[in-house]
Amino acid sequence: MRLIVLIVLALLIATAVGLGATWLTATRGTDFGTLTIGAWIARPRTGTAEIDPYSRATIARSGELPIGTGDGIAFSASADDNKKPLDGRCDVIVSGVTPPARFWTLSLYDRKGRLVANSLQRYGFTSEEIVRNSDGSFELHIASRARAGNWLPTGGIERYTLMLRLYDTPVGVATRTQRDAPMPSIATAGCS
Amino acid sequence: MIRILFAVVGGILLGGVVHLVSVLALPSIATQDAYSRLTAMAPLNVVTPLPLADPNHSPMPFMDPAFAVAVCRYDLSAGSIKLTVPVSQAYTSVSFYTRSDVAYYAINDRSAGRKVIELNLMTEAQHAELPEEEDVTAADRLIIDSPSTTGLIVLKALAPEPGMMGQAQASLAASRCRLQTEPPVVKPATK
C-alpha cells in the first residue's frame, strides 16, 4: 500500500514538473540562440530549418509563422532599456537608427500578438513613413494621447510588445553585437 | 522518510523526461498552429489572399500590418507545384514552411532578380526523377526541394504607405500556384 502511494506521488510530481516546465518554456520562450541588443530580442534561427525544439513548441502553441531568414528578421521588445515593462499609459520614446535593411516596419501588439485598435487605424510605422531628423535618425513617440511628430497610439493598454522587422537585411545568424546591428533605444519618459 | 525523498527525487527526474517528450511532441499535437488555422480558409494548391491584419480578427498572431499576405497550402503527392509571383513596387517575398511550420526557404524579389519570381517546388524524390540534362539547364529556373509533402507557401507584398495596400494586394492577386501532374519541362532561357 505504501509503495503504491509513493509511486502515485512520484508520478504526480513528474507530471506537474514536466508539463509545468513545458508550459513555461512554450509561453515565455528560452534563451537558446537569442540575440539581445539593448531591449530588443531576436531568434535568428527560428527562420531556418535549424530551429530549436523549444522555439518550435512556442510557435506551434502561439500559431504564428516565423519570418524566414531569406526574407528578414524580427526583433521584439516588451520592456524599455531599463527593463521596465512597456506600459501603454506611459510615454515611451523609441529613438535612434536601425540596422541596414531595405525596409523595416515597427508595429505594436498586445501580449497575445493582436494589433491594438485605435481611431487612426495606425498599427505601426514603415521605414518609408517615418519622419526623420536631418542626420537620418528618428524619434517615435508611443503614447495613448496624440503627440507631435511620429506618434504610435497604444489605446491605453497596460502591457504591449513592439516588433521591429528588418526586411532584406544582412542582420541574421552571424550578428552578435550592437556594432553589427545598431538598434534604436527605448525610454519611458513619464506616466500619466 | 527516505522512501518519500526517493519518490520526490524520482518524480523530478521523471518530470524531466515528461518535459522533453512533451516539448518534442507539442508541434505535432498542436491544433492552433499556423497551418491548422489556415487549413479552414485556404484550399489546396491555390493562392488564397488572407484578410488584412486588424485588431479584431487576424488569421495569425504577430502579423505585420504593413504587408498584404496570400498563402498557397500545397500537397505534392500528385505532382510538383509551379509558382509565379509578380513583383510589387516596393518589396515582395516568398517563404516556404513545412507542415509543422518550420521555415525552410525564403526568397525576396531582389535575390530572385526579376520582375516575376518563378519557381518549381517538388519533393526530393520528384527532383531526383527529373531527367538529368534538364536539371543542368534548370540553373535559370529555381527548383526548391520541400522536406515534407504538404506545407505552406506564404507570399508577402509590402505596402510602404497605407495608400499602397491596394497595389500590393493586386500584385499578389496576379500570382499563381499550380499543380503540375506532368514532370516540369524546363526550357533553356530565351536570350
List the helices and strands and how they pair.
The complex is a heterodimer of chains A (192) and B (191).
Chain A: H1 2-28, E1 35-37, E2 40-42, H2 53-62, E3 72-77, E4 90-96, E5 103-109, E6 124-126, E7 138-143, E8 150-153, E9 161-167, E10 185-191
Parallel strand pairs in A: 7-8
Antiparallel strand pairs in A: 1-2, 3-9, 4-7, 4-10, 5-6, 5-9
Helix pairs in contact in A: 1-2
Chain B: H1 2-29, H2 34-39, E1 47-49, E2 67-75, E3 80-86, E4 92-98, E5 103-108, H3 109-112, E6 116-123, H4 124-129, H5 132-137, E7 142-146, E8 150-158, H6 165-173, E9 176-180
Parallel strand pairs in B: 6-7
Antiparallel strand pairs in B: 1-2, 2-8, 3-6, 3-9, 4-5, 4-8
Structural overview:
The complex is a heterodimer of chains A (192) and B (191). Chain A is of the alpha+beta class and 192 residues long. Chain A has helices spanning 2-28, 53-62, and strands at 35-37, 40-42, 72-77, 90-96, 103-109, 124-126, 138-143, 150-153, 161-167, 185-191. In chain A, strands 3-9-5-6 form a 4-stranded antiparallel sheet, with no helix packed on it. The longest helix of chain A has 27 residues, at 2-28. Chain B has helices spanning 2-29, 34-39, 109-112, 124-129, 132-137, 165-173, and strands at 47-49, 67-75, 80-86, 92-98, 103-108, 116-123, 142-146, 150-158, 176-180. The model of chain B has no long low-confidence stretch (mean pLDDT 86). With 191 residues, chain B is α+β, with helices and mostly antiparallel strands. At the A-B interface, helix 1, helix 2, strand 5 and strand 9 of A face helix 1, helix 2, strand 4, strand 5 and strand 8 of B.
Shape of chain B: globular
Strand content of chain B: 25-35%
Strand order of the largest sheet of chain A: 3-9-5-6
Quaternary state reads heterodimer
Which structural class matches the secondary elements of chain B?
A: alpha+beta
Q: Would you state the CATH class of the largest domain in chain A?
A: Mainly Beta
CATH fold call of the largest domain in chain B: Immunoglobulin-like
Largest sheet of chain B: 5 strands, antiparallel
SSE order of chain B, one letter for each helix or strand: HHEEEEEHEHHEEHE
| Number of extended strands of chain A | 10
Percent of residues in helices of chain B: 25-40%
User: What is the CATH topology classification name of the largest domain in chain A?
Assistant: Jelly Rolls
Write the CATH architecture name of the largest domain in chain B: Sandwich
Tally of helical segments of chain B: 6
> Structural class, from secondary structure content of chain A?
alpha+beta
